[in-house]
Amino acid sequence: MAKIIWTSESERWLRDIFDFISEDNQDAAIKVVEGIYKKAQILLEHPKIGYIYEHEVEQEIRILLYGHYRITYLINPNNDIVILGVFHGALKIESYLKE
Fold first, then answer.
1. Cα–Cα distance, 64 to 8 (Å, whole number)
2. Which of 17, 36, 54, 79 is in the most buried spot, having the most CB atoms within 10 Å?
3. Is the dihedral of CA 26, 68, 71, 89 positive or negative?
């Protein structure tokens, strides 16, 4: 059965999101991070629900939206979902997802 694998970088992104939001509202930070995690769980049943990131040529990176955030992931040959990062919509992710 497929599983979701959060890379250390994607976990760092979640911590950064939490830290940033919790400066103003810790309850909101918890809600956002839990929402991102819950949204990613959809990928176990529907791995291709995210749209294909068009700038990548080597691997088929996909993006799943959650509010203002983009959950970037790829599907391994064994069908595991690898979460690469969670980016705010205002960020240019091209700097982080290099070919």
1. 19
2. 36
3. negative
